[in-house]
Amino acid sequence: MMRVSWRILILCLILVLGAGIGIGQAVAARQIGALGSQIVQQEEQISRLSSEAGQREEQLSILDSEAQQLKAETARLALDLQEKQGAYDSLLAKKATAVEELQALQASFANLTEEYRGLRKDHDALREAAANATVEELLSLKEQVSLLERSNSLLHIQVAQLTDRLTPAPRHAVAGREIWGRPEFRSIAWAGRDYELLRKVEEIGRLYHRTHTFIPGETDCSDMAVSLWNMLLTENIKSVIVVGNLEKVGETFEESNHAWLMVFNARGEVFYLEATTSEVIFGRLADGSINPRAIPFREGFIYLRPSDLRRDLKEMW
Question: Given phi > 0 = left and psi -120 to 50 = alpha, else beta, which region is 189?
Answer without folding.
Answer: alpha
